[in-house]
């Protein structure tokens, strides 16, 4: 019988429990898939704790996965049983062995890309693409700061930014993670637990600051990131792993005529053409070697609680997936 992680109450990782579930037949425009790999993201942790009140309880968390098409609802074209597909979707339900989902959210996985890698890339890879192109088109001459440079998005973001010609400064919590970030394209990596990252960025840039600061940490780093900006600098906040950011006086941006963005991937991939174009570009960067990506850490679906614990404790590097 299909299984899923059912969230019945907000709380710590221990509230994530596996249950048997019934899966309905796909309706018009829908597809039933057998999932082989499920992506784990900080967003899932926010949902579990109740920081994000976006999943009605009881409900199944999870926004991305990969697997195999089992059956099609009426009107679905371009897909067939046996096709390997991946998705990310605002319709929760990813933490499951099987599910029904709208066909318009599915993209085919190309040969040479594993299900595990595809499941780990739909959010993190597309987020990295969003950050280096439509959010801020990076190029030669740009100097950027990437927090959590050895994280799931960070490793991709650093590689892509370096490929585009940017100078990349990263932050990391350990020497091991710093080495990974350097291998991914960081010129310098600041150990934020033992160094003042603001002072270090100013030193590394000759007092000028960075053109763009990519901050997924949130509360602990947000205002420091702003202090790292050069005049006309751009602060991109795309996560809050340390907690939500307190309300900010807009006048603070006037210090250097800064700009501030809080992008959400769903808005950049809201249409089918946009999703297809971005997914095609992402998979192409893997094929041509722009991105070198290690296979993600895999844990059984029933150990979703352990995946969340490791993620929140910052014990992971790269991506984490669950295997049903």
Labels describing this entry:
single chain, 324 residues, alpha/beta, Quinone Oxidoreductase, Chain A, domain 1, Rossmann fold, 9 helices, 15 strands, globular
Fold topology:
Blueprint: E1 3-6, E2 17-20, E3 30-40, H1 42-49, E4 64-72, E5 84-88, E6 98-102, E7 106-108, H2 115-135, E8 143-146, H3 152-163, E9 167-172, H4 175-183, E10 188-191, H5 197-204, E11 210-215, H6 222-227, E12 229-237, E13 259-261, H7 265-268, H8 272-287, E14 297-300, H9 304-312, E15 320-323
Parallel strand pairs: 8-9, 8-11, 9-10, 11-12, 12-13, 14-15
Antiparallel strand pairs: 1-2, 3-4, 3-6, 3-15, 4-5, 5-7
Concise summary:
By secondary structure, the protein is of the alpha/beta class. The chain folds into two domains: 141 residues, Quinone Oxidoreductase, Chain A, domain 1 (Alpha-Beta Complex), CATH 3.90.180.10; 138 residues, NAD(P)-binding Rossmann-like Domain (Rossmann fold).
Q: Name the CATH superfamily assignment of the largest domain.
A: Medium-chain alcohol dehydrogenases, catalytic domain
Structural class: alpha/beta
Average pLDDT figure: 95
How many structural domains can be distinguished in the coordinates? Answer: 2
Q: What this model shows, in words?
A:
Helices cover 29% and strands 25% of the residues. It has nine helices and 15 strands. Helix 2 packs across helix 3. The radius of gyration is 20 Å and the shape is globular. The N and C termini lie close together (12 Å).
């Amino acid at each position: 019988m299909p299984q899923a992680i059912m969230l019945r109450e907000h709380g710590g990782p221990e509230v994530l429990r596996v249950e048997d579930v019934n899966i309905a037949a796909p309706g018009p425009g829908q597809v039933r898939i057998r999932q082989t790999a499920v992506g784990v993201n900080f967003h899932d942790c926010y949902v579990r704790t109740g920081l994000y009140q976006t999943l009605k309880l009881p409900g199944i968390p999870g926004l991305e996965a990969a697997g195999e098409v089992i059956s099609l609802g009426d009107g679905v074209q371009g897909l067939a049983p046996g096709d390997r597909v991946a998705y990310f979707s605002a319709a929760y339900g990813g933490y499951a062995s099987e599910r029904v989902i709208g066909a318009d959210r599915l993209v085919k996985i190309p040969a040479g890309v594993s299900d595990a890698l595809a499941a780990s890339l739909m959010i993190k890879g597309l987020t990295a693409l969003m950050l280096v192109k439509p959010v801020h088109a990076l190029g030669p001459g740009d100097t950027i700061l990437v927090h959590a440079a050895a994280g799931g998005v960070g490793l991709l973001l650093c590689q892509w930014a370096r490929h585009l010609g940017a100078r990349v400064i990263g932050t990391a919590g350990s020497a091991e993670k710093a080495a990974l970030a350097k291998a991914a394209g960081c010129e310098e990596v600041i150990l934020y637990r033992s160094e003042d990252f603001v002072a270090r960025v100013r030193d590394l840039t000759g007092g000028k600051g960075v053109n763009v600061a990519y901050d997924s940490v949130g509360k602990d780093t947000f205002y420091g990131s702003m202090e790292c900006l050069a005049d006309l600098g751009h602060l991109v906040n795309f996560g809050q792993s340390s907690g939500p950011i307190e309300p900010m006086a807009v006048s603070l941006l006037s210090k250097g005529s800064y700009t501030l963005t809080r992008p959400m991937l769903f808005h950049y991939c809201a249409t089918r053409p946009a999703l297809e174009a971005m997914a095609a570009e992402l998979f192409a960067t893997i094929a041509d070697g722009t991105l070198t990506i290690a296979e993600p850490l895999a844990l059984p679906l029933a150990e979703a609680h352990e995946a969340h614990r490791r993620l929140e404790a910052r014990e992971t590097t790269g991506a984490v997936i669950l295997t049903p």
